[in-house]
Specification:
With about 80 residues, the protein is α+β, with helices and mostly antiparallel strands. The protein has helices at about 5-15, 55-60, and strands at about 15-20, 25-30, 40, 65-70.
């Protein structure tokens, strides 16, 4: 799916979103917080590494986004 659909579904379901090629390693949590933006989740360690994502144009136009069954981690 495209990133817009993935973000809407992720926010609605409170599930982590991923790109197909990164789904085993890194996930993303969209927010409406100007300081947090889209938070990065280390899926191997199951934690927030404290980094925020700045997408490439390729990421924004990709249609391989998925919403996982993994819940947003507790802050």
């Amino acid at each position: 799916m495209n990133i817009q659909k993935a973000i809407k579904q992720s926010l609605k379901t409170k599930k982590i979103m991923v790109r197909e090629e990164m789904k085993e390693y890194v996930g993303f949590i969209p927010t409406n917080d100007v300081l947090k933006g889209i938070m990065v989740v280390d899926l191997k360690r199951k934690r927030l590494p404290g980094k925020f994502w700045q997408p490439l144009a390729e990421d924004l136009i990709a249609d391989d986004w998925l919403v996982t069954d993994k819940d947003f981690p507790k802050a």
